[in-house]
Amino acid sequence: MWGRQTCACCVLALGAALGVGAPVAVAQDVGVQFRGDALDPDPGESRKHREQVVDFLAGLIREAATDCIEHDQTLSVTVSGLRLSGREPLHDNPEQTRRASATDWPRMDVEWTLKNAHGHVVASESETLTDREYLERHAIRGSARPLPAEHHMVREWVSRSVCSP
């Protein structure tokens, strides 16, 4: 019949099925931070616009990295310098078209560290990302997305460096 030992076995079996008592796996995490004045200000650019750009790029880095790092890895990214492509018109809308020239390519200084579930460093780098050919990309010229040159540069960097360290 149902004694204490049987109930204890049921509880242990149920706990094992639910993962109770099993080692806790570290969930995938991508942390992105921008140092205080990472974004070079353009004349006429508002604080609100800079915040929108930083939020957009942080989300883009998280999205790109989440697609390729393992479920138990963590990625920490610090952006210490950022220069957007082109020149910003005098508007607060980050989706406004930027005036581009061959000397206004995007640039981003990043430090990143990828760790495994045990906290051991898998890869770590300090890099300066640039895309001097951003004007030659048809997809960027005709893009309706915000900051298309920076979007391309970040995706390329994550694919090249973070996804295959």
Automatic annotation (TrEMBL):
Keyword Signal: yes or no? yes
UniProt superkingdom: Bacteria
Keywords of the record, alphabetical order, are: Signal
Record's InterPro entries? DUF3016
Record keyword Signal present: yes
Q: Which Pfam families match?
A: DUF3016
Signal sequence segment: 1-27
Write the protein's name.
Answer: DUF3016 domain-containing protein
Traced from the root, the source organism's taxonomic lineage reads: Bacteria, Pseudomonadati, Pseudomonadota, Gammaproteobacteria, Chromatiales
